[in-house]
Amino acid sequence: xxxxxxxxxxxxxxxxxxxxxxxxxxxxxxxxxxxxxxxxxxxxxxxxxxxxxxxxxxxxxxxxxxxxxxxxxxxxxxxxxxxxxxxxxxxxxxxxxxxxxxxxxxxxxxxxxxxxxxxxxxxxxxxxxxxxxxxxxxxxxxxxxxxxxxxxxxxxxxxxxxxxxxxxxxxxxxxxxxxxxxxxxxxxxxxxxxxxxxxxxxxxxxxxxxxxxxxxxxxxxxxxxxxxxxxxxxxxxxxxxxxxxxxxxxxxx
Length: 253
Ligand code: NAD
Ligand code: ZN
Known about the structure:
Blueprint: H1 4-15, E1 20-24, H2 43-46, H3 49-52, H4 55-60, H5 63-78, H6 83-93, E2 99-102, H7 108-111, E3 122-124, E4 127-134, E5 140-142, E6 162-166, H8 177-187, E7 190-194, H9 206-212, E8 216-221, E9 233-236, H10 239-252
Parallel strand pairs: 1-2, 1-7, 2-3, 7-8, 8-9
Antiparallel strand pairs: 4-5, 4-6
The structure holds nicotinamide-adenine-dinucleotide (NAD) and zinc ion (ZN).
Nicotinamide-adenine-dinucleotide binds near residues 25, 34, 199 and 223.
């Protein structure tokens, strides 16, 4: 249960900030029906990441990855943004948000309209499920262009393996995206984190960088994280409910 004084503190930070960066993780999409990785019943309890989401394993045998992906992509295509995505989009509409950094690959921020109100950048640290490429000739494909279900795994005309541009374990982050996101963390005066265990590196460096550069840090998460000590305010609970209250106060108080 969030205490009123903590909520007021977060509202005041948001109102008094001039450069807010929102940082989201898998927990911001669970209310859209996409399970996170580490919670009970989450993806990792069904698909061992060292096999299903490992880059080196993918190169040896892509079938396991596509098995997981075919199941997950059905959910991703049909998922709709939830109150967390809408609240973050609203912050941009109000002129209060300067950038979004997300670990998610689900495009739900874009589906909620983020990036289209004030053209703020959205840094997808781990890529997007919608974009695919051939690992050999680098030809790019939209998800809808590639048949993935009737084959063991999709192959390009050149014979190369086709892979979604999502970052698997053992694979570097997309060029330029990490640097851009880190610069936003240095620039911001408020860092708003929603729904991340902050266990995945280098993404989990972001709140630390923001804090070191003087930003006020707000965490909204269902469970405690290893980094709660750096948060100026930690609002624990269901992100959608908390952000709806928070936005109501930002707009009306
Ligand atoms: P994580 O699974 O490690 O942690 C999720 C956190 O969100 C947990 O601490 C949990 O307490 C919290 N949470 C869950 N539901 C919540 C809710 N309704 N409100 C508030 N908090 C909630 O997620 P992570 O830190 O993002 O790391 C997982 C990695 O997996 C990321 O790299 C991400 O790329 C990937 N992933 C992405 C998606 C997606 O695109 N939606 C889904 C699963 C995993
Ligand atoms: Zn090719």
